[in-house]
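Class prep. Sample record?

___
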Amino acid sequence: MIRSPYLLYLGHSNDEVGIKTSRGLAVFRPEACVGEFRHDDCGLTLDLPRMTFAEAVAAGAKTLVLGIANAGGKLGDDLVRDAIAAIEAGLDVASGLHNRLRDEPSLVAAAARHGRLLHDVRDPRPDLPIGTGKPRAGLRLLTVGTDCSVGKMYATLCLERGMRARGLTADFRATGQTGILIAGSGVPLDAVVADFISGAIEQISPARDDDGWDLIEGQGSLFHPSFAGVSTGLLHGAQADALVLCHDPVREHMRGLPHYAMPGLAETLEANLRVARLTSPDVRAVGVALNTSKLTTAQAERLCADTSDALGLPCTDPFAMGVDPIIDRIIACFAPSSRVATLTH
C-alpha cells in the first residue's frame, strides 16, 4: 500500500508531457497531494505549494512520487540523489519508471537505514495468464490513440466520472503507472512480457453480469513504431464493445519520432477497429476525444464540430467540454444492456 498524502516530483523537468504522472495525480486525486518538489531550473508547475522534502513531511506527506516519465523510464543520478534526500527527510518513495528503485543499491541502503519503503509501480503480477480470446460477458470500452500521450487516460477517467454521474455503473481499469497510482490497482502494461499482454487485460477486466462498463485505459498507438505491439495486445485482450479515439490536434509528429508523421483520424480508427475485431467482431466506435488545451475555446469548438461531421461520431474534449456527447452515443448503441430507463440527462 502506497501511503498518502503525496509530494509530487517535478525535478528538473521542462517537458509538459513528461510530468504526466504528477499532473494526473494532481488533477484526479488532488485531495491526496500536499505539494510539489521542483528545482530552480524546472519551468513547470502543477499549481501546488512548492515544498522541500522537510516541509512536505511537516505538512503531512508520506510518499514522494517520482511522477515523471523520461525516455526509456530511466532512474538517473539526479533522481537517485533526490530520492535519497527524500528518504532521509522521512518520506517513502514511489516510482513508475522502468528502472526499479529496488535495483539501485544506494536507495535500498538508505531506505533500510531510515525505515522507509520503496514502491515500484511498474511491477506486474507474477501470475499473469496467456490470453485466450474466449468471449466473456460484460461491457467494455477501450480508449485508443493516434499516438502515445494524447489523453487516453484523461478521456477514460472523465468517462468514468460522467457515466457514474448519469447513473451508469462504470469502472476505470488502469494500464499505466499514472492510472495505477490514481486507481490504486491495475496492470503496468508496458512492463508485461509480450506473450502475456492480452492475458493481463483479460485478468483486470474479467466477465461481469451487472450491466456495468469496464473502461480500459489505452496505451501507445498502432501507428507508433516503438509501442504498436503493446497497443495490439491491449486491443485483443480488451475484447472491447466500444472504442473512443483520442488525438492531440496540434502535435506535428509521433512523440519522440520526428521522422514519423501523425496518422489521420479515419485511418487510425479503421485500423483499431480491424485489429479489435479479432476478439470482438461487433466492436464499434462511439466517439472522438481531442486534447484542445493548446487551442482557444472557439478553435476547440470548431475543430470538434468539424471532426464530428467528418467521422460521423460525437467529438469533444473530455476534460474541457465534458463527455455527454460520447455517453449519449454509448446509450444509443448499447441501450438494451445499459439499464437506460433509469437514466436522466
User: Anything to note?
Assistant: The chain has two domains: 6-120, 139-342.
